[in-house]
Amino acid sequence: MPYRLIITFRNWLYDKKIFAVVKLPCPVISVGNITAGGTGKTPCVIMLARMLQSHGFKPAILSRGYGGKSTKPVNIVADGKNILLDSKTAGDEPFLMAQSLRSIPIIVGPQRIKTGNAAINRFGINVLICDDAMQHRQIFRDINLVLLDSQNPLGNGHVLPRGKLREPIAGLERASAFLLTRADETPKTDVINNKLTQMGNIPIFTSIHKLKDVIKGDYSDKWPIAGLTGKKVCAFCGIAKPDSFKKSLLAAQSHILSFDTFPDHHNYSRAELEIIKNKFYNYEADLIITTQKDGMRLQNFPEFLSIIYMMRIEMEITPARESFNNFILDRLAAAVVNPVSTESK
Fold first, then answer.
1. Torsion angle of alpha carbons 274, 280, 284, 286, nearest 10°?
2. What are residue 253's phi and psi, to 5 degrees?
3. Quick count: other Cβ atoms within 10 Å of Cβ 173?
4. pLDDT-derived band of residue 341, with 50, 70 and 90 as boundaries?
5. What pLDDT, on a 0 to 100 scale, did the predictor assign at position 192?
6. Could you tell me if 189 and 298 lie in one domain?
7. Could you tell me if 174 and 256 lie in one domain?
8. Which residue, 146, 152, 136, is CA-closest to 199?
């Protein structure tokens, strides 16, 4: 109850314009969620950045850099040409995005107003993508894209710490659009129909996590997903939803000999990696495999990276990819023609 009251009061202060919302001189897209845990924000941000770039925009990505050691107000992870910070400093997710988006600036810092202005002034970008910004209301956003895991969109309906909600369900009314992720894994249609459709005229799109390929930890080798068929693997991960990784391995028809899980954003020790490596040898497995996000946290162990593989995934909007793209592009066009001074749906 105390947590709920604090969050509700904070939202009220923003809704009544008692807390200021700052409008930056270019459109802003927020990619966020209402629950704690992974809903696919990182692959969504990567997908959006590529789509915008293909349509002639110059995007940049703003992140708080969760888990990173950076202390400066503005930290340039990537300048659109080179990666300038390691995963320990930047955080695993910004570093992963930098590896995936070599031509797009990525900036980390606690205040998105400062990082946003830095992106505009230093790189001349014309659209900002704010990663995990649903609850960070200080910066105005022209598009509020809210991601929900289709298998469990709202958790148990309670806020932290009793449930998984970061804020009460009423916060969903701020959404410009909902994006149901992992929609191919038995969506919870009762919650979707009973809750989301009652929020008014907010479009609902769906997406899947598509297996892309398998790449060696040091990026020296790459396989198609079909290369995992029949392979005996020792797997490990430290992500919010380890079951999703396990399902991906099974979908690729690999034979899982061991599957070690760690807390989300876990920083691995040499001793833990030695245990995993020993299992690989003892079980006579074909390979050690983890997620790409976990691989970002293993940069201090190059000898280990040289013997493991990472599974890479990408987000795919289905079945209405063109409708989704048009929705984003139309909203951005409207933001340029009709700038407003309050937070918009």
1. -140
2. 65, 35
3. 12
4. very low
5. 67
6. no
7. no
8. 146
**For residue 281, which amino acid is it?**
Y
Q: Is-contact 301 268, C-beta < 8 A?
A: yes
How far is C-alpha 244 from the chain's CA centre? Answer: 15
The answer to whether position 344 is within a domain reads: no
Find out whether 91 and 68 touch, Cβ atoms under 8 Å.
Answer: yes
Tell me: the pLDDT tens digits for 194-207? 777 777 789 999 99
**What pLDDT, on a 0 to 100 scale, did the predictor assign at position 196?**
77
Q: Which residues contact 227 (CB under 8 A, 6 or more apart)?
A: 214
Same domain, 61 and 87: yes
Is the pLDDT at 344 greater than 60? The verdict is: no
Asked whether residue 177 falls in the same domain as residue 71, the answer is yes
C-alpha 65 chain-centroid distance: 11
| 306/304 Cα distance (integer angstroms) | 5
Q: Is residue 28 part of a domain?
A: yes
The answer as to whether 3 is a domain residue is no
User: Domain of 102: which CATH number?
Assistant: 3.40.50.300
Q: Is the dihedral of CA 111, 113, 116, 122 positive or negative?
A: negative
pLDDT in tens, 21-68: 999 999 999 999 999 878 999 999 999 999 999 999 999 999 998 878
Whether the link from the prior residue into 319 is cis, omega within 30° of 0, is yes
Residue 340 confidence (pLDDT): 58
- The per-residue pLDDT for 342 is 46
For residues 221 and 227, the answer to whether their CB atoms sit within 8 Å is: no
Which H, E and C letters describe 177-212, residue by residue? EEEEECCCCCCCHHHHHHCHHHHCCCCEEEEEEEEE
Q: Are 149 and 39 in contact (CB under 8 A)?
A: yes
Secondary structure E strands in 110-184 = 127-131, 143-149, 177-181
Q: How many domains are there within the chain?
A: 2
| Domain that residue 283 falls in | 211-314
Q: Is 229 domain-assigned?
A: yes
At 61-100, the pLDDT tens digits run 999 988 788 889 999 999 999 999 998 899 999 999 999 9
Q: What is the pLDDT of residue 157?
A: 86
Q: Is the peptide bond before 161 cis (omega within 30 degrees of 0)?
A: yes
Q: How far separated are the first and last CA of the chain, in Å rounded?
A: 28
